[in-house]
Design goal:
The protein is of the alpha/beta class. The chain is built from 9 helices and 13 strands. A 7-stranded mixed beta sheet has the order 9-8-7-10-11-13-12, with helices on both faces.
Amino acid sequence: MLESGGPGHRFADADTLIAERLRAALGRRLDKLDLSKTNIFRWVHGEADLLPGVHVDVYADTAVVRFDGAGATAFYSPFEPRLREATDTRLPIRHVVDRSKRGGKASVREVLENGARLEVHLAHGQKGGLFIDQRENRLRVAVRARGKSVLNLFGYTGGFAVHAALAGARRTDTVDIAAPAIEAAKRNFELNELPLDGAGFHTVDAFEFLTGAIGRGDRWDIIISDPPSFAPKKEAVPAARRAYQRLHKMAATIVTSGGLLCAASCSSHIGQDEFLATIETGVRQARRRWTLEGVYGASFDHPVIEAFPEGKYLKFVMGRVR
């Protein structure tokens, strides 16, 4: 895995390589980030940082670690002292949270993402507390949100809505079936001193919400659809394709004419062309017209290498509906 010499040199070489690669990965991130505005990022992205089997996310002063199975856990052990030794003076790490060990005193943090204040639950929240891979896509939506109405489907703790509201959206609605997520979204609005009278928070299944909105004739200028993976394994692809198509049809029905539909897929089993086809078909079934504006992936701290194409899992598509 990390072997670079003969059998007698494996462990010494592995220790050296792990240390070098941890420092190099951190340096690449810190060289591009302004920590006074953004103190959340992925430090280690597995194979793409030449450290297969481990992912490390940074949330302010806390590193959240996830290993891909017992083999990786054993290979990198002890990992916490390795992380601490590799830290940069610009980044003091006071806590390390292992996602395989639930709970802990460092489980809740307030962090900064492009100036927005967000609360994260590190030990229990999804993806270590926040979907960092969508960080740059949240900004792409925000720069278009001023004066617009924004619907954030599968909104989790409201990241897209918070950024849109800070950018001047006149109205946001966040939809998620999980009540704790919606409560966290409200707290994130309050953390940023955003008025709640221009924000809706809906604890309901997204498809059920869309059905009601269609029946009422509701409309939004910008709709973000960022569901959990519909295809966690290859066998689920046909059902996932149908679910995406239905979702995009319903979302396209309630976008204003000339409005923006932002559709995401986090499944590596659904390719980009296949995902785009579900949007085009769904919009057509809604009897609307679709103009693609851009296809984006995960933020820069989730790099992709040719030898590991599975790393290119996130598709974030933006287009106009008329």
